[in-house]
Amino acid sequence: MTPLKPSTSATPMTHEIAPTAPANQAENELLAIDHHWVDAATNGDTEYLKSIFTAEMFEVEADGHVADAAEMLQGIGSRKPGQFEGACDQIQIRGIYDDTAVLTDRRVLKGTGANGQVIDAQWRVTRVLVKQGGKWRAAASALTAIDQK
What's the maximum distance between 2 C-alpha atoms anywhere in the chain? Predict the structure, then answer.
């Protein structure tokens, strides 16, 4: 499958970095983690995800189910190459509070799940990262379905 491109029809809410005003190091690190996290989740790269997940990592899924890191990694690890195509845009750093950061983005995913269910969905994702041992690590995320009417 060809990777999806970020939407051009949505109102941009991205955290753009002006060429004349570079973001600080923390913002650059957080934006890079967000992009890599989405790529790893789309392509089944559990090794990267293990490296950024805290021991207490959890995700509130769009249906309200709370998955811990082990459950998330098991589902992501079962993905086959090319099974999904996905994109992430509208990334916005909502705040950096000492060693905690909150980001939001829009996640688009298309493909077929292991059970044969067709997936064509968008979510607003909230991500919480904490700084541990000098590195930003993922502590929590939550998905809210975006109605595509």
Answer: 49
